[in-house]
């Protein structure tokens, strides 16, 4: 179990404290300029359809921030600190925008909240998430998080030796299906009657990520494990060395173990599964596993264990 340290809990609580302070300051400065009640709920078109008194809004919004902050502070993990900051940023931005929309309104029923508010709040959440991720460096891994690579293969390396491993792997059936979807999508958009032609967009939605995952390059080096499309540097999946608790080789069944092919998410495990058979399986410090089916997985696991062990001693 990944236990939160006092420093980690403080860093998880910090964004909620900042958001609460900013929220209360805005309400104090603008309280007399707000209608009573405020418009606090909006329909799909942005028109107000729910209202809350000023005092009740103050109490409910404060309780919301405190409740979210308490939950994140109690349950936060080092690897999820960014999530606490993103939640605080998104909540604070939405509340601030709601207060702004109500400002100087004569009739709360005529207040409108544009959908762009969600985009702005998401942007603020992204900035907060980046800050939280950067602050993760201030929290040393706990004993449960520290790389513990007992067992598993090793690749002998001298203290000054540098090594890397890379291998491209792919699935011909997935490649064929992705190409077919990419071709069928534009054809449907051009030839199918409207609005049925919109179904052609599904071809693009399926084909683009399908092609990216149909052939990937797997690399183990001083940065950890990286999996990316073989024809592009991004998007990519990376397990840094300080999150590697161990690596090994395992035979996987694509359907039985992961429910299919491609990028798969299951309880306590994720994976890039292009076929059944040999897979590199990495145990992460948070307790989850990441698997990628790739030839010569044993060499990759041995090097990753050696590099993670060396990294943990630095």
Task: Describe the overall structure.
By secondary structure, the protein is of the alpha+beta class. The protein has two domains: 6-138, no CATH class; 216-312, PH-domain like (Roll). The protein is built from eight helices and eleven strands. The protein has helices at 6-30, 54-75, 81-102, 116-135, 172-191, 200-214, 254-258, 297-312, and strands spanning 38-42, 48-52, 165-170, 215-221, 224-229, 237-239, 244-252, 262-266, 269-273, 277-284, 289-293. Strands 7-10-11-9-8 form a five-stranded mixed β-sheet. A four-stranded antiparallel β-sheet has the order 3-4-5-6. A two-stranded antiparallel sheet has the order 1-2. Helix 5 packs antiparallel against helix 6 (200-214). The chain starts with 5 loop residues before the first helix and ends with a helix. Mean pLDDT is 84; it is low at 143-150. Pfam families: DUF1648 (PF07853). Keywords: Membrane, Transmembrane, Transmembrane helix. This is DUF1648 domain-containing protein. Residues 19-58 form the DUF1648 domain. The chain crosses the membrane at residues 12-31, 51-75, 82-99, 111-131, 174-192, 198-218.
Keywords:
314 residues, alpha+beta, PH-domain like, 2 domains, five-stranded mixed sheet, 11 strands, flat, DUF1648, transmembrane, membrane, DUF1648 domain-containing protein, transmembrane helix
SSE blueprint and pairings:
Blueprint: H1 6-30, E1 38-42, E2 48-52, H2 54-75, H3 81-102, H4 116-135, E3 165-170, H5 172-191, H6 200-214, E4 215-221, E5 224-229, E6 237-239, E7 244-252, H7 254-258, E8 262-266, E9 269-273, E10 277-284, E11 289-293, H8 297-312
Parallel strand pairs: 9-11
Antiparallel strand pairs: 1-2, 3-4, 4-5, 5-6, 7-10, 8-9, 10-11
Helix pairs in contact: 1-2, 1-3, 2-3, 3-4, 5-6
């Amino acid at each position: 179990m990944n236990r939160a340290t006092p420093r980690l809990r403080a860093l998880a609580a910090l964004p909620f404290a900042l958001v609460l302070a900013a929220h209360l300051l805005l309400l104090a400065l603008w309280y007399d300029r707000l209608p009573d009640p405020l418009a606090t709920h909006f329909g799909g078109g942005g028109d107000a359809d729910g209202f809350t008194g000023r005092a009740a809004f103050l109490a409910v919004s404060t309780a919301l921030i405190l409740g979210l902050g308490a939950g994140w502070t109690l349950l936060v993990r080092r690897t999820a600190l960014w999530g606490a900051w993103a939640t605080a940023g998104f909540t604070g931005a939405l509340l601030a925008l709601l207060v702004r929309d109500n400002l100087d309104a004569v009739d709360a029923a005529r207040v409108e909240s544009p959908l762009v508010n969600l985009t702005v709040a998401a942007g603020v959440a992204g900035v907060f998430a980046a800050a939280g991720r950067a602050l993760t460096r201030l929290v040393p891994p706990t004993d449960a998080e520290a790389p513990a690579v007992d067992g598993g293969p090793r690749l002998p390396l001298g203290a000054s030796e540098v090594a890397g491993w890379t291998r491209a792997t792919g699935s011909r059936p997935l490649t064929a299906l992705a190409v077919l979807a990419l071709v069928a999508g534009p054809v449907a958009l051009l030839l199918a009657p409207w609005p049925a032609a919109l179904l052609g967009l599904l071809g693009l939605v399926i084909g683009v990520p399908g092609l990216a995952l149909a052939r990937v390059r797997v690399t183990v080096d001083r940065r950890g494990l990286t999996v990316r499309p073989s024809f592009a540097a991004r998007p990519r999946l990376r397990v840094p060395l300080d999150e590697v608790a161990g690596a090994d080789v395992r035979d996987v069944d694509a359907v039985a173990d992961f429910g299919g092919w491609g990028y798969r998410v299951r309880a306590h495990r994720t994976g890039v599964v292009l076929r059944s058979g040999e897979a590199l399986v990495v145990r992460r410090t948070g307790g989850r596993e990441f698997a990628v089916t790739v030839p010569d997985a044993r060499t990759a696991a041995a090097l990753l264990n050696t590099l993670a062990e060396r990294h943990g001693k630095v």
